[in-house]
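Ticket reopened. Same input as before:
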Amino acid sequence: MQIHQYDVVIVGAGGAGMRAALESSVRTRTAVISKLYPTRSHTGAAQGGMCAALANVEEDNWEWHTFDTVKGGDYLVDQDAAEVMAKEAIDAVLDLEKMGLPFNRTPEGRIDQRRFGGHTRNHGEAPVRRSCYAADRTGHMILQTLYQQCVKNDVAFFNEFYVLDLLVDHDLSAGQVGAGEEVNVTGVVAYDLATGEIHVFHAKSVVLATGGAGRIFKTTSNAHTLTGDGIALAYRRGVPLEDMEFFQFHPTGLAGLGILLSEAARGEGAILRNAEGERFMERYAPTIKDLAPRDIVARSMANEVREGRGCGPNKDYVHLDLTHLEPAHIDAKLPDITEFARTYLGVEPYTEPVPVYPTAHYLMGGIPTNIEGEVLRNNDDVIKGLYAAGECACVSVHGSNRLGTNSLLDINVFGRRAGIAAAEYAVGASFVEMPEDPAAAVVAELEAIRTRPDGEKPGEIRKALAETMDLNAQVFRTEDSLKQALADIRELARRYKNVSVQDKSNAFNTDLLEAVELGFLLDLAEVVVLGSLIRKESRGGHFREDYPKRDDATFMRHTMVYRRPLGGGTSDGDADGPFSSSMEADDYRIVVGSKPVTETRYQPMERKY
Amino acid sequence: MTATTETTATKATQVPSFTVTLKIMRHIPSDVAPAGYGEPAPAGTTRWDTFTVQVHGTDRVLDALHKIKWEQDGTLTFRRSCAHGVCGSDALRINGRNRLACKTLLKDLNPSKPITIEPIKGLPVIKDLVVDMEPFFASYREIMPFLITSGVEPTKERLQSAAERERFDDTTKCILCAACTTSCPVFWTDGQYFGPAAIVNAHRWIFDSRDEGAAQRIEILNDREGVWRCRTTFNCTEACPRGIEVTKAIQEVKRAMLTRTH
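Engineering reply: fixed in the latest deploy. New output:
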């Protein structure tokens, strides 16, 4: 075992982690721990763009962007956070350009901008050109640019290190720490994939930037590595999770595969059609049609299929039609995604429509933070020194449905903020002592999996989990389907206790690490389903067929889910909230509270496009 | 209205399930006891294992590898992440050619014969299909892959015309998968050679109108292990899963060296 000491430890080297590292590393001694080489992170898969009201091509301002974000999130957005993001978006884009990011340009040589779903002029009048982009590989260019700057600044990376535990000086999971008491982060425990050696990182500040958890679903645009590690670790250590029932299903995944085709296609003029060739979005969103927010488009598509107007031999997808666009225009603006259609489905987008169906894409919920990126342990108190940013965090700028491009923006704005805050805190703080033998618990769990001679195969459990989530907790949800999903997850969690791997070695044991990741997925799937059961309304990405209306009277609040011991422990948070409850699993209790939504200038209205 | 169900051919989905045999090179790590690691074999050795799996028409080599790992042999070790050709984790030598496992459809590989899978060549193998990428990234870092400018930073964006932007577009596509570098015969015999990927990334900056570091990068690549070692065999261009004209980019860097005025 090796012990390291850094002022700031950043977990994750995608956009949020590296943006934080660029700020933190110039202020104080910083390490970045990543389970992948940084350039492998899933930020690189983002395609369409990053919105900012630069007004380079038409009139725009950050207030319109704030409004669109709030409305797009079906008013479950914390409006102070959305305002920060929309305001700082402009500098965030300019910062990236100054770092060398090759944005597409206007004829005048300025950063070009294009349309994107839900982004409008003057509070919904018409689509606006707000998305700054680099062809359809904007995320790739952001990831490369941030990594290049990290190389320039000689940032210390620990690549292919898996974080296995988050160290905090009070055991929050017991539910015995009262409101207002001081709680400090003390570091993380990590596993070096190449050797199997355990590394303990003692830190004054820790920034969690581990990304999403799309792998709880079967059909997903997410990388195999997006298993919600940081979110699950925080949850296991007693941190609540916020709004986890809100998962975004991106409308245009390649049918049957889930590979993402950017909304930029529709931004450039592509049209969704059903088997009758009808442009069906005209019925669902008469004003902005195919450029309605993702939750609406995904639901409309699923509805077309359900009502028998799906395409193909099994009528189980719809068509994305680009055939009316000039091939030269497609090549210039959408080269990568048209290649995906050719490579994976053998479809030529110049002449043939592309089969598409919604794919699990983005987790709106996550680790609750304030606008400085500090992690909340209940509705009010922060854990000193602990920060989160990006998809693993819930600040909450996306509310119940994220607008396209706002994730690349989120990682830049809040990654930067978390990096600055973590470093500034660390500079003024001293190291808090770690618990004795900080790695003992996780090493014991790891060794139990590794040395168990025979047992359940992780691959089988993971497959069953993903299948029940797709079947029962996807675009359309009901009480019955969710109860089925919950029962399935509980059963799989029981089987997981007897999980065993075939690879018993130390070097590069991905069999073992996949089993660990499966544990994270099971924990998070349960929270997603439980939140969905409790939220008896439909809002944004969460649609309950048995409760198809938004219910502001009861549910205009953030869900906060805590894991607590059976029998004991206080119910942190808002125990008397309108949908507070408690539920027992085999070994623990899940306590559900809620947190008010911050409203500044926008009153909730009905969401029409 | 151009789209109708009748005219749509989702060709890959029309290919029925079929059986493929994969012949995979296994490398047993030398620094660990191989207990429980597949069939007993002495550490530090390699062997070929053969697996047969049932796959679908749209399945890629990566799907077959996952099927083996999840259903037959959990010890089979390889890197992967995004699974659609943008993260650069799974470059492998497939039937003797460097490709991304997640971008190579099995149906396109003549499934009637066993498909051979090996790690990419020229980098030290750690385990099975996993190689040590550190030497590769070290070369990348050496060419100063970041914007170099002088003078006062502008308050707004730097201007760049669409044509200037287009000049280096091709080389911005690089995902650092190492397929090009590890397809290069010069790199195989001389691990000190910078290799195509590093030169591609130098090209990305040398031809960026905003950058002022071209002279420094050209100096670095004028080294005896630099661009002049390229023998123009075009393996790199063929290997690039992103369709970058790698050899052309190397030629352009060579030309920039010969014509530089500074």
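The longest helix of chain B spans residues 246-259. Confidence is low (pLDDT under 50) at residues 1-10, 33-38 of chain B. Please confirm and we'll close it.
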